[in-house]
Write a structure and sequence with these properties.
The structure holds two protein chains of two kinds.
Chain A lengths: L6 E7 L6 E8 L3 H12 L7 E6 L11 H5 L23
Chain B lengths: L3 H12 L12 H20 L1 H8 L5 H26 L5 H9 L17 H21 L5 H29 L3 H20 L11 H6 L7 H19 L9 E3 L4 E3 L5 H11 L3 H14 L1 H22 L1
Antiparallel strand pairs in B: 1-2
């Protein structure tokens, strides 16, 4: 390839009512071709009813080395979960 | 240069059963070893289409033909999953393809054997895919996330490959005397090369120890080979075919089949490029790549034209 086909990330909705999920990536010259290739590569067995494609370079990812400062603050906030609160056993539906 | 601290932290993550993802820090050797293994695996899927493609036009019925077509199409897909997963390690698709085409990269030696009769489609599905599945089931647990995810998808799709092969063998084994002969002949030719698919003996496999330590692999070549023999012998019995190994027998004490020695000279000879079809396979891949160049270029030209149109419309 003199000119590399860009790489695309593929998201597939397996059925209506469910979210699109990341299926993998592939190369294609443009978005339309990415959708067609995604159909052939990722939905040969009826795995999807809808496809999103986005060029990989447009995705910004968090830095794994910064995972601590990003995600650890949530660690000690158990009060965000219902089980943190003590209620008498007689209380129903809460 | 990787520091000892980094290496220790990495090993601790592996020992804890954590998966490594593309942007995580990893030792250069881990990256290199994965690129080697994953690209060989991808190339094997792509080259693996050739021996079977050979029989699509001559499949004996429409049922067999659609199955074989679907199998070969899956292999193209599996090659693509694996190339994409390998690319997350920082090697480009072009580099990967080039390494295959110029012969620097390896692919599974099994595809350097010819498929001479229709029964070979049965033997390939049954034995070659059977061996591949054993290896791939292990790899669904590999420590590198993208590789593990590709393997899960591949294993799901591949179970039909082995079944369709076995069904072909079953039909031939229960057919006329000539058909049964054909099935036996295919088994005779594919048995030993299938055992070779698991690679050299453990003591001759320089990368095994490190791969196991990093949990790239979870079982050794010899363990996987034994698993394959144990599961395949009863399947051959059901077909009423004879595995071409006079030393093959059940070992009560070990709880495994003992089997004869692989011809390692043949193994290394094929690995080094002197198998019956090495040249032909590379010629065919190169021809496909060269003859497809205009399609790749036309797709880029079309994409550029469409993009220019959109710009002029929005202006």
């Amino acid at each position: 390839m003199n000119k590399d086909w860009p790489i695309w990330e593929i998201f597939i909705r397996s059925k209506n009512g469910l979210e699109h999920r990341h299926a993998g990536s592939l190369h294609a010259a443009d978005a339309e071709m990415a959708i067609q290739n995604a159909r052939d590569v990722y939905t040969r067995r009826q795995e999807g009813v809808s496809v999103w494609v986005v060029e990989s370079k447009h995705i910004t990812a968090s830095n794994p080395e910064k995972s601590g400062e990003l995600f650890e603050p949530a660690k000690d906030k158990v009060y965000r979960h219902p089980t943190f609160y003590d209620l008498p056993d007689e209380i129903k539906h809460m | 240069m990787d520091t000892q601290q980094q290496l220790d932290d990495f090993q601790r993550r592996i020992d804890n059963g954590e998966k490594i993802e593309p942007k995580d820090w990893m030792p250069e050797r881990y990256r290199k070893q994965l690129i080697r293994i994953m690209s060989q695996h991808a190339h094997s899927e792509i080259v693996g289409m050739l021996p079977e493609g050979n029989w699509i036009t001559r499949a004996p019925s429409l049922r067999r033909k659609v199955a074989l077509l679907a199998k070969v199409q899956d292999e193209a897909g599996h090659g693509l999953y694996l190339y994409s997963a390998a690319e997350t390690l920082g090697i480009s698709r072009d580099e990967l393809v080039e390494q295959l085409l110029d012969g620097t990269a390896k692919y599974s030696s099994i595809f350097n054997y010819p498929t001479l009769t229709w029964a070979d489609m049965g033997a390939v599905g049954w034995l070659v895919d059977g061996a591949a599945i054993i290896n791939q089931v292990m790899l669904t647990k590999t420590s590198y996330g993208p590789y593990a995810r590709a393997m899960v998808r591949i294993c799901k799709e591949e179970s039909f490959h082995q079944r369709q092969g076995y069904e072909i063998m079953l039909a031939l084994a229960n057919g006329t005397e000539a058909q049964k002969q054909m099935a036996q002949d295919a088994l005779n030719r594919f048995w030993w090369p299938s055992l070779m698919m698991f690679g050299p003996r453990d003591e001759d496999s320089p990368n095994t120890e490190q791969s196991m330590k990093w949990k790239i692999k979870k079982k050794t070549n010899d363990e996987l080979r034994q698993q394959f023999v144990d599961q395949t012998v009863p399947q051959a019995d059901i077909l009423g075919l004879t595995i071409p190994d006079p030393d093959l027998k059940w070992n009560e004490e070990r709880g495994h089949y003992d089997f004869g020695e692989i011809d390692w000279e043949e193994f290394w000879n094929v690995v080094k490029g002197n198998g019956p079809c090495n040249l032909k396979r590379l010629e065919d891949r190169n021809a496909a790549w060269d003859n497809g160049a205009w399609v790749r270029e036309a797709a880029v030209a079309h994409a550029e034209k469409q993009a220019a149109k959109r710009v002029s419309k929005s202006a």
